[in-house]
Specification:
By secondary structure, this protein is α/β, with parallel strands linked by helices. 44% of the residues lie in helices and 19% in strands. Helix 2 links the parallel strand 2 and strand 3.
Amino acid sequence: MTVALIPGSFDPFHNGHLEVVERAGRLFDDVVVATLRNPQKAEPLFSLVEREEMLKEALAHLPNVRIVSVAKLVVDVAHDVGASAIVKGLRAVSDFENELQMAQMNRQLSGIETLFIPTTSTSAFVASRLLREVARYGGDVSAFVPKAVALRLQEKFSR
């Protein structure tokens, strides 16, 4: 059985992420989506528990996908879930430099390979930080996120 790990902060999960998960689901027997706390990023909008709940709702249609939320090294998560590969989405060339460096570090630490899936042009401009900003100021982001996420964003900023 082939297992892929798709790690990310997913704050919030958007259609570009969804595309990568769906495509990985066609390539691997089992896909584990891990929402992580990234200490290099600002305080998250959603807690790990909230992100895990949104992921479960947004990915319920994919029978070979499971969700975990953790606060540890990605390579340790990969080992824990038996992943044969880490899968990362790429939106633009600018993503590649950082992702390549992480992939090389992960391979040196654990031997695990990283596979990159480029998003389609319809998702290439979508970024969680942009969605948070648009939603914070009352903009409609429903075209860019799964319905469960759109509802949570609306709730978060209507307070």
